[in-house]
């Protein structure tokens, strides 16, 4: 791939929460992995660059998945009759325990990465399992794919059962340090992220150790927050001194104040928790598919977005069944309508513009300047062939985007670029 090149086609990207920029038959220029912007005509200075002409196809920013579990890919679509805590014990923990076996991990993670590669997402924030070797395998494979990701070796020193638990806080700390040392300087596009699974999996002693590790290595943090009512009651018993669930992380400085943090779900965050999320600029990963499958509930995503919270979308495979963030957009819009009709008519349903914002700029901010084609943003791009969806009518670009969100399949993604590198 040349250093400077252009893609030609019908270009769409989110301008802000309420507006979508649409350019018919235009040029999107990439220079050194960054967007130089969208142009109706190529300037004289670009007259010699390579132009890849995608004709009538749609070109839009790659989508961002703020929350996905790599070792859960193998059992997606199973156990969907259970709620969170039973689902974790019955399906998730036994399934993740298999990643102790490195050969199994290699085969499974290869399938997982191939699956992500041909979908619409270009960036992922990923939970691996607690196993150091398997996490290294996953990071090697993600790096090879040229997609950009954060990957976390999971910490859990309680309530995982015999097969999925680190012996104590010391063992979890040592494994985390071994992992961090083993990957130092190894990758260009794959970053470590500290990953205490959730409060019920981590003793206070472990969280105290993780605070020191994140300071020493200056790491971002990911975890789960206020997903399920039974989980929230349990956290109250486990950490009685915490004023609310998020405070149980905040006590150990694992809640965004000093390190970039993303918390999945926030279905039941109370006012105090929402205030602290805002104050600490914690990112919310809204995971509507998972919250439906596990009967968790419906997060007030529209409220969060409109109040200026940092929020993007997550697939939460295998609580969610599909990794595609187009699907997460449709799910987010649908559940927001049910919430509006059945729970709270003060929070209007999400619009297409809002969902597109969360899928691109909203989640993209966790990675930096990502999710837009404005000049200076990282060049993450997907090309979609929606010819089958055009019927005989003339749709405008926004209408075509809406149909892609609801109707497209991974097979319709015909090309993908991340940081200017061609993925396929
Ligand atoms: N809370 C703790 N672990 C998990 C997990 O693996 N998936 C979901 N959805 N919630 C969790
Ligand atoms: Fe999750």
Automatic annotation (TrEMBL):
Q: Which Gene3D superfamilies match?
A: Metal-dependent hydrolases, Urease, subunit C, domain 1
Example of a GO cellular component annotation carried by this entry:
cytosol
Q: Where does the Amidohydrolase-related domain start and stop, copy by copy? A: 58-421
Keyword Zinc applies? yes
The UniProt entry, under InterPro entries, shows:
Amidohydro-rel, Metal-dep_hydrolase_composite, Metal_Hydrolase, Metallo-dep_hydrolases
Q: Which GO terms describe its biological process?
A: guanine catabolic process
Asked whether the UniProt record includes Metal-binding among its keywords, one would answer yes
Q: Which cofactor does it need?
A: Zn(2+)
Q: Which domain of life is it from?
A: Bacteria
GO MF annotation list: guanine deaminase activity; zinc ion binding
Which keywords does this Swiss-Prot/TrEMBL entry list?
Hydrolase, Metal-binding, Zinc
Give the protein's recorded name: Amidohydrolase family protein
What is the scientific name of the source organism? Anaerococcus obesiensis
